[in-house]
């Protein structure tokens, strides 16, 4: 039976959307040429509250309190925001998540720490379809430490499965570095099951949560995860270049070998000691001075997610994904498009990717005509579905424009 893809259905879906009021909490898109913003999984839209808080921080905390603000509350921001993020989106008890650096730096720290916790093992495992940063860092750390990279030969669109991980992980494996949600297809990996498998082989798992945090529930503690990292400028709407976060399970923290030993991770930050002595707990994962202005966006993004609730956010992401699939089947598949994302709701993250032989040219035309999407090589058009800012009529208008321009 053909799905109903009418404007009336889009209106009904918008009317029933419990999260629709949250759209008013974001800075309006001033460009009248934008038909739809379907790239919130690369850069989320700015919150009105973030703009207000930044003005307050500049005028009061920085402008008036000056350097006193460090002692008053800035120094504790990374841990306080990390705890809130852990509770709201990561399934992590306090003291295990902290805001620090970029995703790349956080990955470097956690991979190095994981390898150090497994002396005598000389392999790092990752997959060939993983995000470039993850693959590049695995290769560079292996070269730095004289280790070998063992590759899971993953399909660029289907990703990897537990069976492939099982074949790659063995007695020589120190760390396994994988993404929870595939950046191309949105395929969700079995974080708990794969972590359990990795542990059975005596290795440790490092998870990249960039495309899952703020979009789908993550239960790091329940899965007995070891390490995780993620960015905050996608579904958390923290802003371009906003700092990332890292998670270190409490059981690993005493032995966490910090490879970038900056003063903020020292036991006595202002002691100016002759030699580095790591701070207790998750604070040892810090290196340099926290980026206070960048953390404002993280703080506000997490607060809004807490208000919306990750369960409702996930439910809307699923509904938006189904709507895209219905529209794509009705309008785009007959024009030569194929669906590259899982059709099963429990296997699909917060975006849907369609493939087309002329996707690169078409992507440029779509952006030029107001449908802001992402092109992913070699032939993918990625439609980001940020539940707090994306509406069902907006999605229908975008899909109609894609059909028109294809």
**What's the pLDDT, averaged over the residues?**
97
For CATH, the homologous superfamily of the largest domain is named as Type I PLP-dependent aspartate aminotransferase-like (Major domain)
CATH class of the largest domain equals: Alpha Beta
What is the N-to-C succession of helices and strands? HEHHHEHEHEHEHEEEHHEEHEEEH
Contiguous uncertain segments of 5+ residues: none
Named CATH topology of the largest domain: Aspartate Aminotransferase, domain 2
Instruction: Profile the largest sheet.
Output: 7 strands, mixed
Q: How do the strands of the widest beta sheet line up side by side?
A: 2-8-7-6-5-3-4
Gyration radius over CA:
22 Å
Structural class, please? alpha/beta
Enzyme class: hydrolase
Keywords: Aminotransferase, Antibiotic biosynthesis, Hydrolase, Pyridine nucleotide biosynthesis, Pyridoxal phosphate, Transferase
Pathway: Cofactor biosynthesis; NAD(+) biosynthesis; quinolinate from L-kynurenine: step 2/3; Amino-acid degradation; L-kynurenine degradation; L-alanine and anthranilate from L-kynurenine: step 1/1
Protein name: Kynureninase
């Amino acid at each position: 039976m053909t799905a109903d893809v009418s404007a009336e259905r889009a209106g009904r879906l918008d009317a029933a959307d419990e999260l629709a009021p949250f759209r008013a909490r974001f800075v309006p898109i001033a460009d009248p040429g934008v038909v739809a913003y379907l790239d919130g999984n690369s850069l989320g839209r700015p919150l009105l509250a973030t703009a207000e808080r930044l003005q307050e921080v500049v005028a009061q905390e920085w402008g008036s309190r000056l350097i006193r603000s460090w002692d008053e509350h800035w120094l504790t921001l990374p841990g306080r925001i990390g705890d809130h993020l852990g509770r709201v989106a990561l399934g992590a008890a306090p003291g295990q998540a902290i805001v620090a650096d970029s995703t790349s730096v956080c990955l470097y720290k956690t991979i190095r720490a994981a390898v150090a916790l497994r002396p005598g093992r000389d392999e790092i495992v990752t997959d060939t379809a993983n995000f470039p940063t993850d693959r590049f860092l695995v290769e560079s750390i292996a070269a730095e430490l004289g280790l070998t990279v063992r590759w899971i030969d993953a399909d660029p669109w289907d990703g990897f499965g537990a069976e492939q991980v099982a074949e790659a992980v063995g007695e020589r494996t120190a760390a396994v570095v994988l993404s929870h949600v595939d950046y191309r297809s949105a395929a969700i990996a079995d974080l708990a099951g794969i972590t359990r498998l990795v542990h059975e082989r005596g290795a440790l798992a490092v998870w990249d949560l960039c495309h899952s945090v703020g979009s789908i529930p993550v239960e790091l503690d329940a899965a007995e995860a070891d390490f995780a990292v993620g960015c905050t400028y996608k579904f958390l709407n923290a802003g371009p270049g906003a700092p990332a976060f890292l998670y270190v399970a409490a059981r690993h923290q005493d032995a966490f070998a910090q490879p970038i030993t900056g003063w903020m991770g020292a036991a006595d930050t202002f002691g100016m000691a002759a030699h580095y002595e790591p701070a207790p707990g998750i604070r040892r994962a810090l290196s340099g001075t926290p980026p206070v202005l960048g953390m404002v966006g993280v703080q506000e993004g997490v607060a809004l997610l807490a208000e919306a609730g990750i369960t409702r956010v996930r439910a809307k992401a699923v509904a938006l994904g189904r709507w895209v699939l219905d529209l794509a089947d009705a309008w785009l598949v007959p024009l030569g498009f194929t669906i590259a994302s899982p059709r099963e709701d429990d296997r699909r993250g917060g975006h849907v990717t369609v493939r087309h032989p002329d996707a690169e040219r078409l992507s440029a035309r779509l952006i030029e005509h107001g449908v802001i999407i992402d092109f992913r090589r070699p032939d993918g058009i990625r439609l980001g579905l940020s539940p707090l800012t994306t509406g069902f009529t907006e999605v229908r208008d975008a899909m109609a424009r894609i059909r028109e321009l294809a």
